[in-house]
Amino acid sequence: MKYRTLGPEFEVSALGLGCMPMAGVGRNMYGEASEAESIATIHRAIELGVTLFDTAEIYGPLVNEELVGRAIRGKRDAVVIATKFGFRYDENGMTGVDSTPANVQRACEGSLQRLGVETIDLFYQHRVDPNVPIEETVGAMGRLVEQGKVRRLGLSEASAETIRRAAAVHPIAAVQSEYSLWERDVEADILPVVRELGIGFVPYSPLGRGFLTGQITRREDLPEGDYRRNDPRYSEENFDRNMKVVEVVKAIAAAHDASAAQVALAWLLAQGDDIVPIPGSKRRATLEDSMKAADLVLSADELARLDQASPRGGTAGPRYGEKAMAMTRL
């Protein structure tokens, strides 16, 4: 495994592990997961040198953090734990956003308990709350740093303006947003701002929710109940158009005796040393395949071919439905 820095003096593995598929999302996201295999996947990731593990309060809610906590017991010194707050929820699931200072404190206390740690290494605001000034939220997050409960702060899916305002209140170590060959909008304004401010960037869904792996060759391959059946980019009218970039990814993968997933991740890693993707996995086989991307070097010609095959704005369909899109870039 190779290593990178997210902001000053914050070294992590070049590829992290997104833990969302492991627990609490069930059939509605990426299919069923085995707790035993999920925990074995986290242990294998640690063996491979992965240090950054990403979870969130809303995954479940709560049970994903609990699983990660069980998995890292006795291994705390080997891991960097990132988790997120910012949603309201009840027994039926998410009901809205809440980044009030009181909820920031409440969420942190709960995450610490579920994860079984004394300090959260990276604490993200999961989505910007339009009803609470970012200065108030980040001020509350900063007080958690003063209390020793959090080491570093992050934002997820924030706009460039919000990132600037947040960084003026307290140092921001990382911004997490969707970024991949089929979602490149962050290149316009988010990446320039985080680089200007010395903030690391953590792409989630770096494999296009599985699309860029090439393992889903038609929409019918998705299991019944899989939420991607409602994903605009997986829709009948967009699926075939979006497969064109996968064909290029597969061709380059074949030349390297690599997987399509490895090529898609290697392309992201080549976009800058401040970029640390977090591919999600719930199985050791998938994890081991993805992590090989850290050692895959693409030529300038191959990178150019990928850029040409999937230019910014070239993917058919929005990346989320209308409701979820309304919660991004605030």
Describe what you observe in this structure.
This protein is an alpha/beta fold. It has a single domain (3-326), classed as Alpha-Beta Barrel (TIM Barrel), CATH 3.20.20.100. The protein has 11 helices and 11 strands. It has helices spanning 35-47, 63-72, 101-115, 134-146, 160-169, 190-197, 239-256, 260-269, 284-291, 300-309, 322-325, and strands at 3-5, 11-13, 17-18, 52-54, 80-85, 87-90, 93-97, 120-125, 150-156, 174-178, 200-204. The protein has a 7-stranded parallel β-sheet with strand order 3-4-5-8-9-10-11. Strands 1-2 form a two-stranded antiparallel ribbon. The model has no long low-confidence stretch (mean pLDDT 95).
Describe the protein's topology.
Blueprint: E1 3-5, E2 11-13, E3 17-18, H1 35-47, E4 52-54, H2 63-72, E5 80-85, E6 87-90, E7 93-97, H3 101-115, E8 120-125, H4 134-146, E9 150-156, H5 160-169, E10 174-178, H6 190-197, E11 200-204, H7 239-256, H8 260-269, H9 284-291, H10 300-309, H11 322-325
Parallel strand pairs: 3-4, 4-5, 5-8, 8-9, 9-10, 10-11
Antiparallel strand pairs: 1-2, 6-7
Helix pairs in contact: 1-2, 1-9, 3-4, 4-5, 5-6, 7-8, 7-10
